[in-house]
Write a structure and sequence with these properties.
Helices cover 83% and strands 0% of the residues. With 172 residues, it is mainly alpha-helical. The protein has seven helices and no strands.
Length: 172
């Protein structure tokens, strides 16, 4: 028998887990290590990855809520049926509800992205429309510039003719 004062709580925990892994009964472990059954149960649950807090959170919850939590932990309906002691039909119904619930955010995201695409396409259409307007303005200004160049050339030629006539009159 272990002296209860000679070992630290950590040493007691290690011994209890060692005995548990070697298939000793709860009664044998509690007696040998001098632990209460609830303390031994907590130690074994902690070792197996079952957290007491998560069980306390689920206490009082419906079987459906517990099943949804299991599915969220990537459990399959068979595991939920066994763990919650429900029928496979119930487990499948809960799983279908879980799938519907988890698909809602995806559908909302899809709708949001579709609206963003429509907004981008609308903005693109406005930009293309404005670009076409600017191209038309450039073409119009280019025509006006060509007309101005043509008129300037004609005026220069007329001015040259007048200059030549003036020089003839002054010379003559």
């Amino acid at each position: 028998m272990v002296n209860p004062f000679a070992e630290t709580p950590e040493e007691k925990k290690e011994l209890a887990l060692h005995m548990h892994h070697n298939r000793h009964t709860y009664r044998e472990i509690c007696k040998e290590v001098r632990l209460s059954p609830s303390t031994l149960s907590r130690i074994i649950k902690e070792d197996s990855g079952i957290v007491e807090d998560s069980q306390n959170k689920m206490a009082g919850k419906s079987k459906e809520a517990k099943a949804l939590a299991l599915y969220d932990q990537d459990k399959v309906p068979l595991e939920a049926a066994i763990e919650l002691d429900i029928t496979t039909d119930q487990a499948i119904d809960f799983y279908q509800k879980f799938q519907q619930i988890t698909c809602i955010p995806l559908e909302n995201r899809r709708l949001h992205l579709q609206k963003e695409i429509e907004a981008i396409e609308s903005a693109r259409d406005k930009v293309n429309s404005h670009l076409m307007y600017l191209r038309n303005q450039i073409a119009e200004q280019s025509r006006i510039l060509q007309d101005f160049k043509s008129q300037t050339k004609q005026c220069r030629n007329e001015l040259f003719v007048l200059y030549c006539q003036r020089n003839q009159l002054l010379a003559g």
